[in-house]
């Protein structure tokens, strides 16, 4: 069990909950009503800032239903919340592109996150030749 210190920027959103036995990804909510025009890029405030456990970062992705419900595409594909993003004003945001005129309401569940451990320290060692077997190049295994 890990503990996350969390600050809410809105009284109108429900508190985050870890739900057991379903999916361990945790839903995040939109912190204000927003009307967005087709073709616009906006940062959706998620109404929370957190101090992640030491040695962890958080990954933010859309819910499966986000595109169907709102027509939003997450422009960075996956948000990475660094452990150092832990200040009092460090609210989490979801950067999105609206593919149609749309509305999102305060407290709507818009995306989800989980925490993951940092990768180990990595040293790059340059070589002129790799000894592994070639796979045939990018995208060569076909569709079946
Ligand atoms: O979808 C996202 C991605 C990032 N962040 C916050 C947390 C993260 O720690 C910080 C910086 O993100 P990142 O390092 O990916 O962005 P950058 O473009 O490299 O900006 P910076 O110069 O602030 O590092 O912004 C979000 O709130 N939502």
Automatic annotation (TrEMBL):
Enzyme Commission identifier(s): 3.6.1.23
Signal peptide: none
GO biological process, alphabetically ordered: dUMP biosynthetic process; dUTP catabolic process
Domain dUTPase-like: 27-142
Keywords: Hydrolase, Nucleotide metabolism
Molecular functions per Gene Ontology: dUTP diphosphatase activity; magnesium ion binding
Domain of life: Bacteria
A Pfam family hit: dUTPase
Catalysed reaction, written as an equation: dUTP + H2O = dUMP + diphosphate + H(+)
Family according to the record: Belongs to the dUTPase family.
UniProt protein name: dUTP diphosphatase
């Amino acid at each position: 069990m890990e503990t996350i210190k969390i600050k809410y920027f809105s009284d109108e959103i429900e508190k985050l909950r870890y739900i057991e036995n379903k999916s361990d990804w945790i839903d995040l909510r939109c912190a204000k009503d927003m009307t967005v025009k087709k073709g616009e890029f906006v940062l959706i405030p998620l109404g929370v800032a957190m101090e992640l456990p030491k040695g962890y970062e958080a990954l933010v992705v859309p819910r499966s239903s986000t595109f169907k419900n709102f027509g939003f595409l997450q422009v960075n594909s996956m948000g990475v919340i660094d452990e150092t993003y832990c200040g009092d004003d460090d609210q989490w945001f979801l950067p999105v592109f609206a593919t149609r005129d749309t509305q999102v309401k305060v407290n709507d569940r818009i995306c989800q996150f989980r925490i993951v451990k940092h990768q180990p320290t990595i040293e790059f060692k340059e070589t002129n030749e790799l000894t592994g077997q070639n796979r045939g190049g990018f995208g060569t295994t076909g569709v079946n």
